[in-house]
Amino acid sequence: MEETQVLEINLISAQGLKEPTGKLRRLQTYASVWVDSSSKLRTRIDRIGSENPIWNDKFVFQVSPEFLSSETSGVSIEIYAVGYLRDHLIGTVRFLVSNFLPTAAVKVPSLVALQIRRPSGKFHGVLNIAAMVMDASELPADFFKSVQEIRRSRKMRKSRSAVSSSENGSADDGESSKENSVCGSVNFSDDGTDSTASSPMPSPLRDWNAVRNLAGKNHVRSSSDGGGLMCCFLMKSSGMLPPRRKMTDG
């Protein structure tokens, strides 16, 4: 079986976002990113940048060489504005991997500025991202196991919290519900077997930072330094992701 590789995506910032119509609060935004729509990850919420947010959050996806070489393989990104009752889609970006990255592992990230497509279909604003391919062997040896344990622990805590809230008759405020709005099923593989963990992901940084601390990877900045790293391993048992439909978004 061919050795898998890791695709690192850094959602750096955006400029010139168009605010949703009829907004009643200062623009606060986050971005959702995925290579498989069933498993979406997201950045922290930028509360001060308004139309020009800065996230500087990193995400890593385990992918096959076939995925990297396919002309239709890409990373999808959606940018949302936090709302009182619901979050509003500001725009989307489709990053076609083959257009910007070599298939071999390269230690230098490619910096790309991509136009943001509004829900109306018009382009407005720019998303700045960095992308890089790494060897999976560069990750800590106990990486998969550590992530599984953290996911399981977080899921148990959330279950206990939900039961406690139900018994006390309390409810989360609107902002809290929005920060828990993105969830997904993430597949991890440690020794060749598949295991699945599904839970809300309000703060994806904490998962990876906990794994990084366990592994002693001090060279990666923590969330307190203004940047973070989140992982999402989406390999199927066959070692390949399903084929993607080609899209034309810039």
TrEMBL record:
<dbReference type="InterPro" id="IPR044750">
    <property type="entry name" value="C2_SRC2/BAP"/>
</dbReference>
<feature type="domain" description="C2">
    <location>
        <begin position="1"/>
        <end position="110"/>
    </location>
</feature>
<dbReference type="Pfam" id="PF00168">
    <property type="entry name" value="C2"/>
</dbReference>
<dbReference type="InterPro" id="IPR035892">
    <property type="entry name" value="C2_domain_sf"/>
</dbReference>
<feature type="region of interest" description="Disordered">
    <location>
        <begin position="155"/>
        <end position="205"/>
    </location>
</feature>
<feature type="compositionally biased region" description="Polar residues">
    <location>
        <begin position="179"/>
        <end position="200"/>
    </location>
</feature>
<dbReference type="InterPro" id="IPR000008">
    <property type="entry name" value="C2_dom"/>
</dbReference>
<dbReference type="GO" id="GO:0006952">
    <property type="term" value="P:defense response"/>
</dbReference>
<protein>
    <recommendedName>
        <fullName>C2 domain-containing protein</fullName>
    </recommendedName>
</protein>
